[in-house]
Design goal:
Helix content is 38%, strand content 12%. By secondary structure, the protein is α/β, with parallel strands linked by helices.
């Protein structure tokens, strides 16, 4: 209700296409951590700024997931191969599993 009162759309898709959503979220995360969009724009403009566009690995980092339903769980599972710690929060208690630790 709070998010909606601030103009943020809240949509529930209990099953949906969880695999595709998890993969898309991973792609966006890797794009952000590796500065792919900025690097692409720069290279297309003829500028090679290797140090300015150096990203970082997610291995060893902590990644948080807000809402640990089927989509959040699928994302955590995809992240499991990257060596990062995954934490989650959800309105339901006791959501800790193999893939994420509820905080």
């Amino acid at each position: 209700a709070y998010a909606q009162s601030k103009g943020v759309a809240v949509i529930a898709a209990p099953e949906g296409n969880r695999g595709a959503v998890a993969e898309h979220a991973l792609g966006m995360l890797l794009s952000m951590t590796n500065k792919l969009c900025a690097a692409d724009r720069s290279v297309r403009a003829g500028i090679w700024d290797r140090e300015g566009h150096r990203g970082f690995e997610i291995a060893g980092k902590t990644i948080g997931i807000v809402g640990y339903g089927v989509m959040g769980h699928a994302f955590a599972k995809v992240l499991s191969g990257f060596g990062c710690r995954v934490i989650c929060t959800d309105i339901k208690p006791n959501m800790t599993d193999t893939w994420a630790e509820q905080i």
